[in-house]
Structure formats: structure tokens, C-alpha cells
Amino acid sequence: MLCLLCTSEKTKLIGTVKSTYSWVKILGKTDSEFEVYDCEVCDTRFVFPNIVSEDLYDFVFKGTDLYRSHLDFALNLAKHDDPSWALLSLGHPYYGILDFLKGKAGLEVLDIGCSYGSVVYIMNLLGHKASGIDISNQAIQFAKGIFGNNYYLTDTKGLLENNPTLRFDLVTAIEVIEHVSEPMEFIKQCLSLLKPNGSLLLTTPNKDYKQYSESRKQRELLEKKIWHFDSPPVHLAIYGEKAMRYIAEQNNCKVEFIVCPGLSQTTGNLNLIAVFTKL
Length: 279
Hints:
The protein has helices spanning 56-63, 68-76, 83-88, 92-101, 118-125, 137-147, 156-162, 183-192, 216-224, 241-250, 264-267, and strands at 11-18, 33-39, 45-48, 108-112, 129-134, 151-153, 168-174, 194-205, 237-238, 253-257, 271-278. With 279 residues, the chain is of the alpha/beta class. The strands form 2 sheets. The chain has a 7-stranded mixed beta sheet, with helices on both faces. Strand 2 and strand 3 (45-48) form a beta hairpin.
């Protein structure tokens, strides 16, 4: 089996995982059981099959409660006086945005996979010029209805084809790459959207994260678990620092990691926060 990220043949089947979502078979285009592989070259863990149904995310946003907490947050966001506090309340991946933006002003920003639009709205409140894109029409319509017209129904490929000269100081892809069936091509497209000194800030669930438990029995159970985050077909891969460094090397970039305070000293970051800049 070829690695989803680096296409190496040096992969190993380590087990199978069943989707935890009862609605998967409703889509009629995917099975509910997936093979799980580890790559010896880039250390990516990925599933097969890993083809994303075109209507998956419209179905997810419209017909499930998977992202209900994000919708509730977006609907109540206007009640918050401090947008930076609001951003932090979304969780670890968003700490990286605030850390990166310290001391910066007036950046042109693109948020890829903007969902209900909260991050774009907050970055605009913080004095930047931000817009967002998503492949789900449902998500974009929600975002426009809540926050205005800075949101567009497209993917990175379509954006580049229709706007060949469009470039940004910062491109963010918060918890996106784990959903993508062609991750290296996705990264290349993200980097193509950067100005010469621009940065790509990417976050994703961390393969190197060690779930913490004081119970020895619970620790042993956690160590045996081969898929710790959202089940497929929502998440297709789990990446660690080695994968991020491989991405940087293949795209002539340097990569730096933002580390959240707290349990990361013991467990590692729950979410990788990687910042790529072209060499």
C-alpha cells in the first residue's frame, strides 16, 4: 500500500478500525471498516480506503452534530468582548494562531477549511484582513449568514485556478490536512498562495501525543489503541513531527513548531502546530 503522504511502498498494515459514525453507510459511498497503515519513511499513519466523497462535508454540516460545538460557538461569538480570549476558547490548535500573530498587524490572511467562519471573524477583529474558503456549501452559507461576505465556496486548487495572482501573508489550515486525500498536493497549493515572505500555519492532531492516565491499566489500553482521533472517513491520516519535517524537506521549506503550555511537557502537544516558510 502506498503511503498517503510520501507515496512510499514501505508501509505496514497494523490493523483495522471501524468508523464510529452511524451515518457513514447512509452516504452509500464508503465502507464502515478501514485498514490502518504506518509508513516507515515519513511516519504517517493512514487509512484505506481514503477517498473523500464529494458530498461528505455537506452531509456532515447539514445532517450530523459532529461540529455542533463549533456552530454554537460561532452563533455566540458576537457576545465576546475580547476576540483573542474567544479564539483561545476554541482549544489548543488556535493557540498557535495567537502566538504567531503576536506583534503583527494588518496581515492579509486566508483560512482554508474555514468551517463556520469564527477564525476569520476574529482575525478581522484583531486588525488583519482575513477571508476563508471551504468545500462545504452548508458551512459557507452559515458563515456568511453569521459574519458577512468574507467566505467563498472553493478549494485551494479552484482558488488558484480562478485567481492566479492572489497571494497572502499568512495561510492557515487549522485541523484540515488530516481530512485530505492528497496531502502533499494540498501543501503545494497552500504554499503557492503565499507572498515571498509569507507563512503557512498548519495544525493537525499529533501522532506523537501520549494520552495521559494515572491508571496503569488505562495507560496500557490507550497504548494499544491504533486510532486516537476522529474516525475515518472524517480523519484519513495522523501526522507527527517527522511527517511535518518530511513535508518541509520536500517543499524546500523550514518548519518550526509552536508548543502550547500545560500538559505538553509530559504528553507532547495534543495538536501539532507547524509553521512553514519557504527557503
